[in-house]
Amino acid sequence: MALNNSISSTIPASLSSAHHLQSKSPSLFTAKAFKKPKRLSLFFSAMGSFLSSQKPKKIQEADKGNYASISDEEWKQRLSKEQYYVCRQKGTEGAFTGEYWNTKTPGTYHCVCCDTPLFESTTKFDSGTGWPSYYQPIGNNVKSKLDLSIIFMPRQEVNCAACDSHLGHVFDDGPPQTGKRYCINSASLKLKPK
Ligand SMILES: [Zn+2]
């Protein structure tokens, strides 16, 4: 939506670039466009939907910059207390207390902070730990890094690749499919049922 706004507020500039796109009779196009504002807005809304149907990867890359600029204070306002504690302060919810530890509903688990799809329910398994567990994330939407916060127990922390939200940890004792166990806090997820 922001895209459409920014385009319509800079119509003259966008029009001149449209000339280059449309090789045929630029002056005719301009005259037509100014005579028929309805057509013009149609042109731009079509352009908007074209842009938004681009590969999700591109959108995520763009979003990455946006999320990095969100202040701690703003996250605090956007999220519940529990979500803020887990996602932005690397907290851990109690075992068997989260919303999804025992959920078997088919669907996709998204990042609660930025809505990036992170895990499919088809990769969820019962780990017996009391946290939702998955053997595989969606694409490269989850990244991991070494976590030495418990000195005698080095772990791999997992974060949302788009907004850097803390999700949980990944361990090497998962089921045969991948051997990985992504141990995730319910508070950092939002299930969208199929
Ligand atoms: Zn995210």
Automatic annotation (TrEMBL):
Pfam families for the chain: SelR
Reaction(s) catalysed by this chain's protein: L-methionyl-[protein] + [thioredoxin]-disulfide + H2O = L-methionyl-(R)-S-oxide-[protein] + [thioredoxin]-dithiol
UniProt EC number: 1.8.4.12
Domain MsrB: 72-194
Single GO MF annotation: metal ion binding
Keywords: Metal-binding, Oxidoreductase, Redox-active center, Zinc
Enzyme class: oxidoreductase
Functional summary from the UniProt entry: Catalyzes the reduction of methionine sulfoxide (MetSO) to methionine in proteins. Plays a protective role against oxidative stress by restoring activity to proteins that have been inactivated by methionine oxidation. MSRB family specifically reduces the MetSO R-enantiomer.
Species of provenance: Cinnamomum micranthum f. kanehirae
Cofactor-binding details, from the entry: Binds 1 zinc ion per subunit.
Name of the protein in question: Peptide-methionine (R)-S-oxide reductase
Cofactor(s) listed in the protein's UniProt record: Zn(2+)
Keyword Zinc: yes
Keyword Membrane on entry: no
